Amino acid sequence: SLRRSKLPDPARIGNAGSFFKNPVVSLALAEQIRQALPALPQFPAGDGQVKLSAAYLIDQAGWKGRRQGDAGVHANHALVLVNHGGASGQDLYRLAGDIAADVQARWQVTLEIEPRVIGTDGAVR
């Protein structure tokens, strides 16, 4: 399928697939962001809200293809965080936090992690 062709094969490079949910924001915030990013994909979400493309925001913030040590963002799909060999779960979680903080600072959009994260204490986050 098309989705599978865009995602890296976990047997070749460690990844958790799509890592961030597409955020839902107010129509007013979506219009404000559209002034800066006219090509930002947006979809009606009902009740005066709009769903934005998390991948587009991450890409426009310059994260696509970037690495922090062995943790990185896939070069072909900005929603996919990858382990280039020696990254720990904490390294990937830290990278996700850095991406989310950057998107928040630039456009006041909160990115939510899609996979369930299980801490060393067994707690699901």
Kindly list the characteristics that best describe this protein.
single chain; 125 residues; alpha+beta; Uridine Diphospho-n-acetylenolpyruvylglucosamine Reductase, domain 1; 4-stranded antiparallel β-sheet; 3-stranded antiparallel β-sheet; globular
Report what the structure shows:
The strands form two sheets. The chain has a four-stranded antiparallel β-sheet, covered by helices on one side. It is an alpha+beta fold and 125 residues long. Helices cover 33% and strands 21% of the residues. Strand 5 and strand 6 form a beta hairpin.
Task: Give the spatial strand order of the biggest sheet.
Answer: 1-7-6-5
Mean pLDDT: 87
CATH superfamily of the domain at 2-20 and 54-107: UDP-N-acetylenolpyruvoylglucosamine reductase, C-terminal domain
The fold-level CATH name of the domain at 2-20 and 54-107 is Uridine Diphospho-n-acetylenolpyruvylglucosamine Reductase, domain 1
Query: Judging by the overall fold, what is the CATH architecture of the domain at 2-20 and 54-107?
Result: Alpha-Beta Complex
Structural class: alpha+beta
Q: How many strand elements?
A: 7
Fraction of residues in H or I helices: 25-40%
How are helices and strands ordered from N to C? HEEHEEHEEEH
Q: How much of the polypeptide forms β-strand, as a percent range?
A: 15-25%
Unreliable stretches (pLDDT < 50, length at least 5) are: none
Radius of gyration, taken over Cα atoms and rounded to an integer in Å: 15 Å
Rounded to the nearest angstrom, the distance between the terminal CA atoms is 30 Å
CATH class of the domain at 2-20 and 54-107: Alpha Beta
Task: Please work out how many helical segments DSSP would assign.
Answer: 4
Largest sheet: 4 strands, antiparallel
The general outline is: globular
